[in-house]
Amino acid sequence: MLKVRLIAAAVMIPAAILWVWLAPPVVFAAVAALIVLAAAREWAVLAGIKSRTSHAAWLVLVLGLLILAWWGARQGTRDFLPLLTAFLAFWVLMTVDLAWGGLRNSRLALLLQGVGVLVPAFFALLLIRGMETGTGLIFALFAVVWGADAGAYFTGRTAGRHKLAPRISPGKTWEGLLGGLLLAAVAGALASLWCPVAVQVLVPLAVVTAAFSVVGDLVESRLKRAADAKDSGHLIPGHGGVLDRIDSLGAAAPVFALGLEWMHRIW
After folding, report:
1. Are 251 and 215 in contact (CB under 8 A)?
2. Domain span at residue 66?
């Protein structure tokens, strides 16, 4: 399985780099929207939506919100700090819910969570891409998320002893979390070499972003456990579905965008 995961990653990572590096803004947004819609479809299946009509209505709703987010992100002079802060508040609430809530939620609650996970991530990616040197900042975000994921995976496999969230994701450990945060910090330090962000700012932002990326992963893990599913889909060999690959980014992108906005105002 590890070999399959590595081969799939060797294909996906260069593809993601080419997408961010070469795609003009409209194409970047269109590809991001397609990825989010694919993840939204998987979310609906895990949430227990069965009829084709309900699936279609859900996807139309998500598409409409993505179009609205795309339009809003194009208004580059607007102040999005309150909205990004609201996204952060959502993820803080999700953290509290993971710590003290149950495994199962109502179908409506799950769909609302899906909107809160997927649409803000799309919006934040467009905002970051539209910033000065936005391409480099997107690469920094990806490096932090990928670093946190790889660090947690390999540290957890080799040194994991204490369970992080045994009811939700038995494979995750506190040692894995620490390894992920450390590698995310390294990724943030390296990203400061190509981003116009001071290393003393980017490293703490990378650690906080990575911490919330774990929350995003756990939110999807809880959804899969409630649905008694191992993966959100089978599209990507060794990695599961699209949602399995972007769950961490769902929380990381809005937090990273908010941190960049705060940095811009303070510095």
Report:
1. yes
2. 2-266
